[in-house]
Design brief:
- The structure is a homodimer.
- By secondary structure, chain A is of the alpha/beta class.
- Chain A folds into two domains: about 200 residues, Quinone Oxidoreductase, Chain A, domain 1 (Alpha-Beta Complex); about 140 residues, Rossmann fold.
- In chain A, strands 3, 5, 6, 9, 10, 18 and 19 form a seven-stranded mixed β-sheet that branches.
- The longest helix of chain A is centred in the middle third of the chain and has 12 residues.
- The first copy, chain A, is globular, with a radius of gyration of 20 Å.
- The termini of chain A are close together.
- The relative contact order of chain A is 0.16.
- Strand 16 of chain A pairs antiparallel with strand 16 of chain B, so a sheet runs across the interface.
């Protein structure tokens, strides 16, 4: 089968590799219908040191079950399924709390344990917990497939930001970052009833989609100027919730500066820093709350599927380019150059 | 009148100073019935550089209104009143949000703007917002006075920690620190329904009061050993909420290590650091929430007064030593030596 392997910064290849096989009785093998490239895949694309054996890539998958291990009970051959970007048992106390990304028995794709999902076939561990069937939909229902795929990561990561910030009707929400996750956070904040949604971003094609999804204001300025713009929009008070979908330190600092006293900063951009300001001058003095983390999309996916199928939301619009799997290297380059917002991959 | 002035580390004096006078039409003059010494007063007691003019001290006050400016409408001469440790208008958007400690028109005592409250008389700015009358109680109702005084800071600071952590019935709560605020946080967590309350502290007389107030476990160990003890008590999962009432970095690090995935760390100990770990390894990876700040006790005080008067809570038990104002320097020394948990001052 074909799979995506990264050999170093800027060096992504699609190669023939052995088909995956059932290794544990709880595994399933899934044939890819749609996969995609994530903004987080660009981190190694920028920085990975050359490697002779390479690193398999991808963690987003909509597919059809091909085979199940003897202990799998909740999905069967032929089911259309979504694979959340982390696998988990979905039964332990941590999963029952709704934080499946930290399941002590689970893990992540494209790691030593499990291959990446930008491939024709994938082995899914703990399939009962890690796959969610989409009843009544087949792989021929083309228009709905992109939005279903976003439930494996990008849309529900944006939703997690808004959920952890406890966005409520009437609130003012600022979204930092106009990437696919930031735009998803706009859509989620709107679903949760935010009245004013300020999108901080400067890429017009992207912010236009943000406006369609509910952003009431777009602030292209950054730093001091951006902060002043947000404060001006909010009567000098700042934003009840700030959804941070970037992960770099300037975005963190911008976030606490535009937050209202007593407000919440909710991060879903993986922080590219370990230490940051949390003392009197940054968070403590104004009773700011800092929250967020890797999105446990598994916790939200069953509620989101009907929203997609009924057309309430169409998060698949973040995909502005579609390519066959052979062209995945060009997809990385297009996202890196910001020629593509997010690349959908067919097989 | 007598007032408390600090001239440098370890150098506190009670001196005769001019009586305060009404400076603004919204001011009130309050005669002290009870005041006290705060753990935070020990920070300058340790570190203040020698000063020839000195620094007035104190921010906790139960007193009787002596005089009001012409624009004061909600309190009158003769009222027994509690002064929250920050003054505020209590009408602006920030105050209405419940964060009066950040009121843009307010401020703190013992600053350039306003003298400290360890004195016989005090000028209270914005008296309508900054004083809360206690109807039906007089300064002769001695037994209830200490608990009423705790509503100006210590008890409601502990309450703020539990409130911001959204402690709910059935949860496990860990309190870091067995000072007066930490013990108050135990009492507040119990009021909010916490089922398991783990108090991390090593001063037996203090932790005994914590147990009376609801602590189900006391963990005297610190560092790795303390973390392992808490994890053992919580089936390896950690605590839903961690109430941090210390303010030093080791307490911060201990807090995120004993928090359950998806849990909350709520700080009310003023952080003696500005930067700290917030990235994947500390907060982000396990979706931990960090919250807290200077307690807006003004927001909670009206609900707490009946709890005190009905005897539901007796937070005044944190006072284990009572001294007249002339002995305040000895009170600082006793708290610094941990001979006293918290010193109540009479005038």
């Amino acid at each position: 089968m074909k799979a995506t392997i990264m050999y170093g910064a800027g060096d992504v290849r699609v190669e023939e590799v052995a088909d995956p096989v059932i290794q544990h009785p709880t595994d399933a093998i899934v044939r890819t219908v749609r996969t995609c490239i994530c903004g987080s895949d660009l981190h190694p694309y920028h920085s990975m040191r050359p490697s002779s054996h390479g690193q398999s890539m991808g963690h987003e998958l909509l597919g059809v079950v091909e085979e199940t291990g003897p202990e799998v009970t909740t999905v069967k051959k032929g089911d259309l399924v979504i694979a959340p970007f982390a696998w988990s048992d979905n039964t332990c106390p941590t999963c029952r709390d709704g934080f499946q990304t930290a399941c002590p028995h689970g893990g992540f794709y494209a790691t030593r344990q499990t291959a990446g999902l930008q491939a024709e076939l994938s082995r899914i561990p703990l399939a009962d917990g890690s796959l969610v069937p989409v009843p009544g939909v087949t792989e021929d229902d083309t228009p709905v497939l992109p939005s279903l795929l976003t439930l494996s990561d990008v849309y529900l990561t944006g939703y997690h930001a808004a959920f952890m910030a406890r966005v409520r009707p009437g609130q003012t929400v600022t979204v930092v970052g106009d990437g696919a996750v930031g735009l998803s956070a706009v859509l989620a904040a709107k679903q949760l009833g935010a009245e004013t949604i300020i999108l901080m971003g400067r890429h017009r094609a992207r912010t236009d989609l943000g406006v369609e999804w509910g952003a009431t204001h777009v602030v292209p300025e950054r730093g001091d100027e951006g902060v002043q713009r947000v404060l001006a929009i909010t009567d000098g008070l700042g934003s009840h919730a700030v959804l941070e979908a970037v992960g770099h330190m300037p975005a963190y600092e911008q976030s606490y500066r535009v937050a209202r006293t007593g407000g919440v900063i909710s991060r879903v951009g993986v922080p590219q820093y370990e230490e940051a300001g949390v003392g009197f001058r940054s968070l403590f003095g104004r009773n700011l709350t800092l929250t967020g983390g890797p999105a446990p999309v598994r916790a939200y996916i069953e509620d989101a599927i009907p929203q997609v199928l009924e057309g309430t939301i169409e998060p698949g619009r973040v995909f502005d380019v579609t390519m066959p799997i052979d062209d995945v290297p060009a997809g990385y380059a297009a996202m890196d150059a910001r020629d593509a917002l997010k690349v959908l991959v067919t097989v």
